[in-house]
């Protein structure tokens, strides 16, 4: 760990104590926060002079449904140790004052309806990031003033970055010349063989068969 990261880790521990779990890997510090402390921690990260994270430079969703249950428990902070949440929001913060970065991870406590507080009142840049996480992962950010889909169509069904979302989707869109408008219909993609054809029939493409010497 570099001296700058060591200083950041020390400032984080002095500010939050054991309320926030910190890990260091690949040259970056990650803070794992409980959902009910999320807003307070994020506001402190911005306002505390020894931390001073003025900018939210990224926020995305993560679906941990295919992760090993034991591995997930190593990542989370939860009051119920048996709980293995599926969805998380991951934020990347930048301090221009101190020239350091921090990753913050918070898990939604409910897998069926993943709801987290919006940080848009702390960093206005969270606006479209949270909309994107809602669109692609179904994360609901409580307090967001305009939580609409951002990348998919308003009539899109499901959330395409979830691990259980089918690759082909559920519906397809095409122009109907009779109705003179764009319509939705069930996906018509048929499964096809994608295994390379290694064994060719004799004489394929004019090739002479290999004969033993």
TrEMBL record:
Belongs to the complex I 30 kDa subunit family. Residues 32-170 form the NADH:ubiquinone oxidoreductase 30kDa subunit domain. The keyword Cell membrane does not apply. It holds the Pfam family Complex1_30kDa. This is NADH:ubiquinone oxidoreductase 30kDa subunit domain-containing protein. It comes from Linnemannia gamsii. Keywords: NAD, Translocase, Transport. PROSITE patterns: COMPLEX1_30K. It comes from the Eukaryota. The keyword Translocase applies. Gene3D superfamilies: NADH:ubiquinone oxidoreductase, 30kDa subunit (3.30.460.80).
